[in-house]
Amino acid sequence: MTDVTEQTERTEQTERTEQSGQAEVKQAQPPTVIVDNLHIVYRLRTGAGAGKAKGAKNKAALREQAAAAKEQQGQQGRDREPQQAGKGRASRALRRLTGRSDSAEKRGSRKVHAIKGVSFTAYRGEAIGVIGSNGSGKSTILRAIAGLMPAEAGRVYTEGQPSLLGVNAALMNDLSGERNVILGCLAMGMTPQEAYAKREEIIKFSGINEKGDFSSLPMRAYSSGMAARLRFAIASAKNHDVLMIDEALATGDRKFRRRSEARIRELRAEAGTVFLVSHSNKSIRDTCDRVLWLESGSLVMDGPTEEVLEAYEEFMNS
Ligand SMILES: Nc1ncnc2c1ncn2[C@@H]1O[C@H](COP(=O)(O)OP(=O)(O)OP(=O)(O)O)[C@@H](O)[C@H]1O
């Protein structure tokens, strides 16, 4: 198995995880993902310099605006009271506009401890729902399994290359749906011949051409639901060792949702492991046989779908 968290070697804790109760229950199938006492921490820069790269363009524009305002104020001031008017006002306005105050000039950082010591083992052939209230850590744990988040502590071991739907598809808004299908297939490791051979089938499955020739239009012309359907269609065209779907089904209409749920069942039958993050308990019920329930970054429950959903629904209604 590969350590996707790129830390040091296998720990004793992993051995314990593999020998845990879950493993005894599911020992007929080999494990595909081991999450071992995982901690994920986001670090945010605050104060001066925060969001520098992103905000630089806006700030340059704001500075120009402020300079123009200063010029105007200066002109008005000169008309009224030479030298004094406008003095200091423009720089105060600039600080207000850019959100910088003298005290905020101090550099700082804040941490968000998003995943707190989560452990579980997933097995080949399982479809696992990931549930929990907003901000409980569902997307973060999928990103960690995909190898996109470094671990603060603990490890994630995976068999094969996990694919996080929507990220691995690497779609581009300026390219047509058709070109994106080819791009997505190549990004998943298909040869150009395989990608071209799959193109029609993927577009048909996505249903984007049901109301006109949308596949030849740039993706920026698609609704969010259409884009999500195309991403799902591309990602599910390949059999994945580990496929992770984050809310993708929630955006499709009912017809597409049924089709994609059937595809998830096929993927499971073809021996992969599927993780599905969803706020729709119905999607989870229809698709998953096991559920992980996270709250505030901790694993509250891990068990059969009905058992966990019942407890979760009770918690949500209390
Ligand atoms: N890029 C980020 N920077 C800082 N904190 C983040 C970032 N992304 C998520 N978080 C924080 O990590 C925690 C877990 O977020 P995450 O997105 O994993 O939750 P979620 O269960 O997927 O939420 P939702 O159901 O609302 O999509 C939250 O407290 C969130 O504020």
UniProtKB/TrEMBL annotation:
Entry keyword annotation includes NADP: no
Ranges of compositional bias, category Basic and acidic residues: 7-18
Q: Where is this region: Disordered?
A: 1-34, 49-110
InterPro entries, per database record = AAA+_ATPase, ABC_transporter-like_ATP-bd, ABC_transporter-like_CS, ABC_transpr_TagH-like, Bact_Polysacc_Export_ATP-bd, P-loop_NTPase
UniProt keyword list:
ATP-binding, Nucleotide-binding, Transport
Pfam families tied to this protein: ABC_tran (PF00005)
Task: Identify the domain of life.
Answer: Bacteria
Domain ABC transporter: residue ranges: 99-316
Q: SUPFAM superfamilies from the entry? A: P-loop containing nucleoside triphosphate hydrolases (SSF52540)
* An example Gene Ontology molecular-function term: ATP binding
Which residue intervals are annotated with compositional bias (Low complexity) in the record? Answer: 63-76
Compositional bias, Basic residues, is annotated for 89-98
Q: What PROSITE patterns does the record point to?
A: ABC_TRANSPORTER_1 (PS00211), ABC_TRANSPORTER_2 (PS50893)
Instruction: Say which family it is in.
Output: Belongs to the ABC transporter superfamily.
This protein is called ABC transporter ATP-binding protein
- Identify the species of origin: Streptomonospora algeriensis
Q: What is the lineage of its organism?
A: Bacteria, Bacillati, Actinomycetota, Actinomycetes, Streptosporangiales
